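Handout for the seminar on molecular recognition.
Each group receives one record of this type.
Step one: identify the two inputs.
Step two: read the structure output and locate the region that could contact zinc ion.
Step three: write two sentences on what you found, then compare them with the reference statements printed after the record.
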Amino acid sequence: MKVASVLIPLPVPEAFDYAVPDEMVVARGDQVAVPLGPRLMRGIVSEVFETTGSNRRLKAVEAVLDDPALPPSTVDFVEWAGRWTLAAPGEMAATALKGLRAPPPRPERRVRRVGERQPARATPARTAVLAALGDRALTAADLARAAGVSSGVVKGLVDEGVLEIFEVSAQAAFDPPDPDHAPSSLNADQAAAAQAMAEGVMARAFRPFLLDGVTGSGKTETYLEAAAEALRADPAAQILILLPEIALTQAVIERITARFGAAPAEWHSGVAPPRRRQVWEAVVAGRCNIVVGARSALFLPFVNLRLVVVDEEHDSSFKQEEGLVYHGRDLAVARARIEGAAVVLASATPSLETLWNARQGRYGWLKLRARHGAAVLPDIQLLDLRQSPPDPQTWLSQPLRQAIGETLARREQTLLFLNRRGYAPVVLCRACGHRLTAPDTDSWLVEHRYTGRLVCHLTGFSMPRPKLCPSCGAEDSLVSVGPGVERVEEEVRQLFPEARVAVFSSDTVPDGKSARALIQSMTDGQIDILVATQAAAKGHNFPGLTLVGVVDADLGLRGGDLRAAERTYQLLAQATGRAGRADKPGRALLQTWTPEHPVLQALAAGDRDAFVEAETAEREIASLPPYGRLAAIILSSENAAAVEKVAADLAQAIPNAERLEVYGPADAPLALVRGRRRKRLLVRADRDVDIQAFLRAWLGRVKAPGSVRLTVDVDPYSFL
Ligand SMILES: Nc1ncnc2c1ncn2[C@@H]1O[C@H](COP(=O)(O)OP(=O)(O)OP(=O)(O)O)[C@@H](O)[C@H]1O
Ligand SMILES: [Zn+2]
């Protein structure tokens, strides 16, 4: 008997087996409909095998679906990703089908001539329509517009049988990119790096690279030339470019379009589902060469993937924390390995993990040491707030105010960076000291003045600012503590009433369209001072921007998690790296209460290596990543006793293992979220320990009730 193992999108650890009816032809990767209880479900065939004399009574595969099969290497990839993250393989596989959620776009109705038939009565309008149409096929609306007549005229010709309507399927056409459309002339460093990457692509084998270039050194320029080489060698080559933020996609798409004379496909949550379906179908049919997207684009069904680029590879936005927990950068490397492709991790501030791999010789290390052309790196200065503190209830010190004034006078642009949304991060009661939090949640409410509401950034809960203290009932006792971008904007407007000021954060720029508009007006010089969170601090090229002011350089250093120093270094190096990217030199001023901090010292000295040395040495002593591996288990439930019970059971059931420790269970730093109690356990292991095997063995010993959610986070980035 023939049996198919089918991956079904359910939280179960294995594929389900089904009998294959005699007349049915199925293969690995096929999409099938299979019965599950009373329902039919869509699944992906992971394996087909013969068994003899089975005594199992298997249900049969109902049908092989018309939708295209996943290429076998895509199935390999989703199965590997499931094993790596300990996610259910069927749920991982389902992410590869996300493009199919929308129905196919409706076929388009167009009109064309019917042979040589002429209208019975030739009016000027009718003649214009026939002339405009020629032997083309257009939609009725386009034709009427082209002929400058009302749509009634077109309809009249159809009714008379001079024109006919027919349907074309709305299959998206992706014009083939032309590698020789507009090549850049690369400088020596760039050319050497592009050459090495191109050779990696030609090898048709797994070839990982770190493209390590200072901000504005032309990393994009360089990897696009490697992509061009790949396309010259194989016009069917597919190239995937991953970006950490949707806000960055537009600029890269424009550069690719200019470079190759054809627009790439775009893939992220902001792309409408019918369009995503078109991209998905074009990718699996090999009709689409270049995809620019967010981490979920990793799951597209590529048939000839030759090059994967992870731009801004250090960015923690590549880590998905909700639903399936995975790191896009790590999965990108795995996908390239499975496909036998080249992968390029690009950054001015690579993660310690990636630098470590480059140092070990596992990744080819390509360096771009200087900005392109005449541009130079900005001059970075620390402003010691102990010497020049801002006035009470203001956030910009005198030296920073002066620098903004000078920049304005030169008609150049300023970016004020503060990685905090809203107006004030905390609202508290002067009478009783109560800090306002969301109901049944430990995180503080953030005041937003634009909307006049207090918002929980964790759960999305919001409410109007209350009149009375919810704790003691005092009247008018609530005060806003600390600054967010909106509050800095308020101060800037008071100081420089004539300046054109804008705020860039996920509140003011909620979608791709508004991001594009704001980035465009900044690029065009229509904004003098941009107050921004990290959304605007990376990747962008603003030619008129010469001053970057960091409002609170100490902010990220206070949170004590594993990557606080690394993350702060990266964020500030990226933010300051926006200054002086064109012909005018830039400078950056960092306000700090702790100018002696090693991270800030390294930034001011422009000495990344010193920072990396010191930070890596600390990690080595503690055997933390990249020298060791971590995994977290997070338990949560509305039933506090149930969480305690599962945590205790887990603690009892820890398998014996060497060079591995388990910490906890402990209350999570956010111990209460939406009424759910949260507890964490942390596993640390040496690098050569199979941490996934350990976790599987461990979790297999404990049965958690349905009321307790258990999340496994391999290589955690968030410790909340
Ligand atoms: N070889 C080149 N010829 C012409 N212009 C170049 C070249 N290399 C870089 N540039 C220009 O320099 C600027 C910076 O390049 P790019 O955005 O590729 O840098 P990057 O290294 O990706 O920067 P970041 O890491 O800061 O985002 C761009 O305006 C780009 O067009
Ligand atoms: Zn109070």
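Reference statements: Residues 188-202 form the longest helix (15 residues). The two ends are 51 Å apart (CA to CA).
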